[in-house]
Design goal:
Length: 79
């Protein structure tokens, strides 16, 4: 069972990555709740730790390079 959007928490690994990357942190903070949940759900549903780490790196990289909204989230998270 996955946490609903109202109670989804930011994983420690993502929080750590955001804390040292200000542009992606600002981008993540600016996301609407549905888009933010898409990121969190994508991390939560990763079956392997390696997959979650890849998705975090992809999000950080994409958010640092783009100033777009939800349209690129699926691409950077791989679904």
């Amino acid at each position: 069972m996955y946490a609903p959007a109202s109670t989804a928490k930011i994983p420690e690994d993502l929080q750590a990555a955001l804390s040292v990357n200000p542009v992606p942190a600002l981008f993540f903070g600016s996301l609407k709740s549905a888009a933010r949940y898409e990121v969190l759900h994508g991390l939560e549903t990763a079956k392997k730790r390696d997959t979650q780490e890849l998705r975090i790196r992809a999000f950080i990289t994409s958010a640092a390079e783009h100033n777009e909204t939800d349209s690129f989230l699926g691409r950077c998270l791989g679904f």
